[in-house]
């Protein structure tokens, strides 16, 4: 299981969800106490995109990892 801290803007959400749906494992997005499925566009849009989001992957996919690397924050 891998956790990555990312920041998304409204334009990135569609690409993020699209990349997540191509993965055959669960991906969670967390901010404070809120947890949503990364494959749910409504769930991701309901997050506070002005904050850093924590993405927890329960598997590996090189394309999705590349997307996360582009949006990774320290």
UniProtKB/TrEMBL annotation:
**Which part of the chain is the HPr domain?**
15-60
**Protein name per Swiss-Prot or TrEMBL:** HPr family phosphocarrier protein
What species does this protein belong to? Hominiventricola aquisgranensis
């Amino acid at each position: 299981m891998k956790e990555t801290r990312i920041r998304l803007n409204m334009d990135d959400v569609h690409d993020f969800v699209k990349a997540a749906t191509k993965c055959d494992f669960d991906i969670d997005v967390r901010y404070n106490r809120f947890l949503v499925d990364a494959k749910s566009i409504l769930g991701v849009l309901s997050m506070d995109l002005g904050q850093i989001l924590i993405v927890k992957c329960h598997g590996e996919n090189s394309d999705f990892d590349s997307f996360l690397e582009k949006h990774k924050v320290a």
